Give the backbone structure.
Amino acid sequence: MIPKSEYIRKLIHLSNLIIPISYYYVFQDKRFFLISLFFFVLIFLAIDLFREKNKYIKILFNLFFNRMMRKHELNGALTGASWVMISAFFTILIFPKNIAILSLIFMSVGDTVAGLVGRRVGKLKIGEKTLEGFVFGFLICVIISYNYKLIPFSISIYGSLVGMIFEVLPLPLDDNLKIPLSSASIMFVIESYLI
């Protein structure tokens, strides 16, 4: 059974869609959007750095977020929220707009589906993740790629696959960083050099 706090965490993770949606519909100027994201990166990093050092920040943080935190986050590591901001900043900085948007959607939706399915029905373990989570995460990314043709489906399907492979691989990096950067990289390489 999945605890209620995990559903809340995943709901918050889905709210990260505000970043690619804002980039697609609202912010035409990449530079302005990057400046805005950098400001948020600094805020999230400051909260992470001071939540253990300032008792008032710690009380507020614990009141709202403690139940949703992973063990390594409780022990002082950066939270998933900080990694989301960092990865969004670098993904948008490095890659073309449509590729960045799609890879950030993969991070938000694909990772959420993989996590929930893996915890709910996952039996075949791959490290701390599950094959079932990987398959469903990949399928939702494929559905997103097919329905929202930000780039050709023949390219985005590779981004879906690579993003979810990196989600399941036991690399010492946060999923919020691994998924968008890996999926964006493969889509960029295929679009730029192989087609």
User: Anything to note?
Assistant: The chain is about 75% helix and 0% strand. The chain has a mean pLDDT of 88. The CA atoms of residues 96 and 188 lie 8 Å apart. Residues 97-121 form the longest helix (25 residues).
